[in-house]
Amino acid sequence: MANYFSIFRPHYKSNFALALPVMLSQAGQMIVVLADNIMVGQLGATELAAVALANNIFVVGMMFGIGLVTGLTPLAGKAFGSNNRPEAANWFKQSMYTHPVMALLQTILMALVALAIPFMGQPEEVVKLAIPYYMLLVASLLPFQFFFIFKQYAEGLGNTRIAMIITLSANILNIFLNYLLIYGKAGFPAYGIMGAGYATLIARVVMPMAFTYLYFKLDFFKPERTHWKMIRFNFKQSLRMLRVGSPIGGQYIVEVLTFSLGSIMMGWIGEKELAAHQIVMSLVTLTYMISAGLAAATTVKVSHFRGAGQITGMNRAFYASLHMVLVFMFVSLVTFLSFRYKIPGFFVPDQEVIAIAAGLMFVGGLFQLFDGIQVISLGALRGIEDTKIPMIMLIIAYFPIALPVSYVAGFVLNLGPQGIWLGYMVGLMLVGAQLLTRFRWKVKKLMLSEQSK
User: Fold this and answer.
1) How far is 390 from 217, CA to CA, in rounded Å?
2) Beta-carbon neighbour count of residue 342 at 10 Å?
């Protein structure tokens, strides 16, 4: 057994080193969301509801855009792994040609969505505040996408630290500007929730500006600067990048919609059940950052080994991430079970909500084990540019299976909130097993292909 794990030891270290900056970046984003809610919450319930409504609509389009750009990482990573930096630089410039155009189209479409907000059945006061705030978020999409082009390319080259430094710095700026612009401090007007929107927009404009400065300053990007003028737009390569990225965007949308619909079902049961659900979801989201960080590292390492033609290394990098995520999620499960009554108490004093949340934490703890498997498997498959079939697997596992199971277990079998979460777990078990099997099959196929040469 010791010999078995020893072959993964170098991968544990390198995968975690790549993953940690991604985890910290995501933690920073969560802190900004929390700060937004706390600061806007001081203005009143209507203002907080308006921000929540705008964010919930915006996040769907934003996640698709992020997924679209994520298709750059495995392509650049494969070129980097094969020691072909000019080819990696080519993918970077193709992304600079392609993704801003897509982001501009997306911005126009998302702006049009604002016309539908008054018809979403929300209180009139909330809608009046939500629409202008939402439009500021939409305006931030294009610069945010520019930042992600730099970020995903740097990750493809195995550098996750630059994006982390910029993200955390922008998060601090965002919170500071929130304080100035929401409440009107240091001589600034008090803009209310629009101040939070302006702060977000300014921070998201600064992020690509900072990355552009570092791009021209750091020796790390010297090959890109050297080959930049020689690279021309290539329609076929642009299309290939979109074919890799579009299903990733689709995967993100499927996940967002699935959990949003689960929240709606929870609201049908009752207010306290929904409150308990939100508490446990926030805890699961926190632990998910570990999985997501390791998945990003897995995508990078798998693409590098694939580019180098090292199929065994590719396989070991995947299993190293899988081992780490399962250990972490098991520790998380034990923690959830041991402190299932204490942790919810930090969120609310209501004993009934705490009791409901405690029941959900048992299912949520198990849920995380399967979530870890599916996230790491997805990351590995992205590393070999396999994104379309995994998206279809997610759609099948979530929409015709997980959500109906949630409804039947929650309402027909009267299992209540735990029944709804049971549906989540069934969907994750199914898709996790499918994705794991698919990656193993892909690796065997690549090994046979190498042996036949």
Assistant:
1) 39
2) 10
**Tokens at 224, concatenated:** 């890109």
The secondary structure of 271-287 as a DSSP string is HHHHHHHHHHHHHHHHH
161-183 and 193-217 helices, crossing angle to 10°: 150
Q: Please report, as a single letter, which amino acid is at residue 237.
A: Q
Distance of CA 334 to the CA centre of its chain: 25
Six-digit token pair at 330?
Answer: 């098991």
3-state secondary structure of 193: helix
Cα–Cα dist 38/44, whole Å: 10
Q: Cβ(428)–Cβ(374) under 8 Å?
A: yes
Closest by Cα among 273, 270, 269 to 357: 273
d(CA 32, CA 222): 33
Give me the chain's average pLDDT, please: 93
Query: Rounded to 5, what percent of the chain is helix, strand, coil?
Result: 90, 0, 10
Task: Return the pLDDT at 152.
Answer: 97
Q: How many residues does the chain have?
A: 453
Residue 1 has pLDDT above 70, yes or no: no
- Residue 75 corresponds to which tokens in the numbers above? 């392509």
Q: How far apart are CA 136 and CA 331, in angstroms?
A: 40
Read off the amino acid at residue 342: K
Kindly report the pTM of this predicted structure.
0.93
In 3D space, the residue among 338, 39, 324 whose CA is nearest the CA of residue 179 turns out to be: 39
**Helices 193-217, 124-139: inter-axial angle, 10-degree rounding:** 10
| Cα separation, 152 vs 25, whole angstroms | 13
Could you give the CA distance from residue 340 to residue 353 in angstroms, rounded to a whole number? 12
Is residue 308 within 8 Å of 388, Cβ to Cβ? no
Structural tokens at position 22: 């991604």
Q: What would the two tokens of residue 338 be? A: 């041991």
Identify the residue whose tokens are 């750059």.
72
Per the model's pLDDT, the better-predicted residue between 397 and 276 turns out to be 397
The domain locations on the chain are 9-233, 247-453
What single-letter amino acid sits at 152?
A: Q
Q: Check residue 411 and report its DSSP letter.
A: I
> What does the pLDDT read at residue 142?
96
Q: How confident is the model at residue 38 (pLDDT cuts 50, 70, 90)?
A: confident
Beta strands in 201-249 (DSSP E): none
Give the position of tokens 């049009």.
112
Contact 76, 153 (CB under 8 A): yes
Report residue 347 as tokens: 């969120």
Residue type, 427: G
Residue 225: CB atoms within 10 A of its CB come to 13
Task: Dig out the tokens for 408 from the structure.
Answer: 């039947």
- Radius of gyration over every alpha carbon of the chain, rounded to an integer in angstroms: 22
